[in-house]
């Protein structure tokens, strides 16, 4: 499991919160959050990834608290997202200017390259600085400065939601390379877009699934959801048995394909197997080392 900690820079746009740089009708804290949420959504389409954000909305939080959150969680990488200001154009990335691990340097190299390639930003180079979040985190930590909010050419890009998507995608492309991430085999289910007032409990009741099933299908580690978030609701939750590791099961004669797509040969059906792993809509059968849909075993 790869644990990716994302830190949207600054606190938010409410009164008394640190908004970061403000110019051209844009607020840094809002942009960093938008990019971070897109990044999270994209990362959760990969297998074996856990994502945690230092904030998922407006939130008072110090730099030390951000680092501590990632340290306590045992993150594999800390990624702080910022927007630049103060005269310049394009993209730069930072790591700590003291002692860093060789992986920190390797991570910066790959992330930097992928972000520049994906966004087409002017490349201002890989830099080092004594920033608190970089200094106080125990894992490789990289801070990205994604364009200049006070430069019209950059600001015009940052006003465009699909460009924010590109920025998030650039970060994803780097992380995919770093951790050799593989796409989730598409979990079967339907998509629910979170509306104002939705709770995980409410959604679970509406679709007849458990909160745990929703969390598992979406890689959620907390009960926090946000408006606009796309949740996969694993189908058949109420009529599919709750399988556990170690359960003995048989593959139904009606089953046709493994969850990975290959045809299930007839001689495999009707035999008893042991469940080694359980995931949203499928189970891993120990004796044949194959993923089979829950609906196809009994
Ligand atoms: Zn900033």
The CATH topology of the largest domain is Aminopeptidase
CATH class of the largest domain: Alpha Beta
Helix content: 25-40%
Q: Any guess at the CATH architecture of the largest domain?
A: 3-Layer(aba) Sandwich
Percent strand equals 15-25%
The H-level CATH homologous superfamily of the largest domain, spelled out, is Zn-dependent exopeptidases
Oligomerization state: single chain
Helix segment tally: 8
| CA-atom Rg in angstroms | 22 Å
What is the residue-averaged pLDDT?
92
Kindly give the count of domains: 3
Tell me about the largest β-sheet. Answer: 6 strands, mixed
Give, in order, the helices and strands. EEEHEHEEHEHEHHEHHEEEEE
> Span from first to last CA?
29 Å
Number of strands: 14
Described by the principal axes of the CA atoms, the overall outline is elongated
| SS-derived structural category | alpha/beta
User: How are the strands ordered across the major sheet?
Assistant: 4-1-5-8-6-7
Small molecules in complex: zinc ion
Unreliable runs, pLDDT <50, ≥5 residues? Answer: none
Enzyme class: hydrolase
Pfam families: Amidase_3, LysM
Protein name: N-acetylmuramoyl-L-alanine amidase
EC number: 3.5.1.28
